[in-house]
């Protein structure tokens, strides 16, 4: 069990160098870049991701969000985009986490678990030994058009809290976080990190007023 500290903040769906710097200036320690997805508001091209990532200084973490389920494909995608972290938004079907570790030893791996019911707890416990962090998001992988994130909806935080209590690695909480609910989310789940997209945006653009209000709640 980790001690409760002020959570680290990852601002996701970054779509320009200006947005990246706005998020960093307000206090983000990580930025998320959404590559091709079946659905969601944050997708940008890999070319744009690579261009923005090249301008981000240490120690800011850069997360590539991928929907690929094939580790060889993921490795190539990370190389093209140049991020230092990969956020795997679906279940790996071809290959395993070790493939990514061996090919890219410096890359951190974050696996997304879509919190839907109590089974999500076992899913998180099973995956935790192989990755560097787990990100608990809202979503639905069984829809015809999969929802892998960016839903703007919260999920059952009681399940997230149970995962936080049973898994030793850092937990990020995502899904519908915004200035109005972040204090309660921290109190209830006490995650290592918070990850958000739509809650600090207006018409898909980063909104400085919402960002400011969000950071004031921490
Ligand atoms: O934003 C997207 O387009 C997206 C698509 C597919 C997977 C993940 C995506 N974004 C991630 O979802 C979380 C939660 O988003 P929200 O705050 O509920 O809008 C976000 O932090 C991104 O990591």
Automatic annotation (TrEMBL):
Keywords: Amino-acid biosynthesis, Aromatic amino acid biosynthesis, Isomerase, Tryptophan biosynthesis. It catalyses: N-(5-phospho-beta-D-ribosyl)anthranilate = 1-(2-carboxyphenylamino)-1-deoxy-D-ribulose 5-phosphate. It comes from the Bacteria. Belongs to the TrpF family. This is N-(5'-phosphoribosyl)anthranilate isomerase. GO terms for biological process: L-tryptophan biosynthetic process. The lineage of its organism: Bacteria, Bacillati, Cyanobacteriota, Cyanophyceae, Nostocales. The keyword Translocase does not apply.
